Amino acid sequence: MRPLLTLFMASLLFLGGCDKSANANSDRYNPSKLKELTNLQTLAKQSREQNLPIMLTVGAEWCEFCHQLREEVLDPMALGGDYDGHYMFMRYLSIDDHTPIPGVDGSPIIKNKLAYRLNADLTPTMVFIDGHGNEVADKIIGIANIELYTTLIHKRLNQAYQKMNNPLRIDAFPTPAN
């Protein structure tokens, strides 16, 4: 019975990421290349002007899967400079942060409340919204396969473009850098 319970718990963590009550190691993480969300109103305005989706990565300091996602997928995407402002706007939204920021309409919203409003209560969760704060693609919850994560992001971006009536498309299978 015990091995079955262990397998079940491992499966939940593997498929769902870290839940709010997880108690992972909280080593202070190296600064990420992914920008923190500090002003959703300004970002939403840019999103509307360029008709690009906003990809919010909801995470937490204590979530080991969040660190893995940032290190292996999001930091390289942000570092290259090819995505942010060209295919989407990429920001990190920490549920640990209780700082109020300007929301889409300019009214202050506390970051962790924004995450819960977006139904992102498991970490990591990736949410795709338009410049009005509407969800325009399916969420990506947890990490099932880190090697295919960029492909999932690209598929969600194409879903967002279609919903936003944006003719832009991105190859679902990114080519590795040479």
Account of the 3D structure:
- The structure is a single chain.
- The protein is an alpha+beta fold.
- It has a single domain (2-163), classed as Glutaredoxin, CATH 3.40.30.
- Helices cover 37% and strands 17% of the residues.
- The protein has helices at 2-16, 40-50, 64-80, 111-117, 149-163; strands at 54-59, 89-94, 100-102, 108-110, 125-129, 135-141.
- The strands form two sheets. Strands 2-1-5-6 form a four-stranded mixed β-sheet, with helices on both faces.
Q: TL;DR?
A:
The protein has five helices and six strands; from the N terminus they run H-H-E-H-E-E-E-H-E-E-H. It has helices at 2-16, 40-50, 64-80, 111-117, 149-163, and strands at residues 54-59, 89-94, 100-102, 108-110, 125-129, 135-141. The strands form two sheets. Strands 2-1-5-6 form a four-stranded mixed sheet, sandwiched between helices. The chain has a two-stranded antiparallel sheet with strand order 3-4.
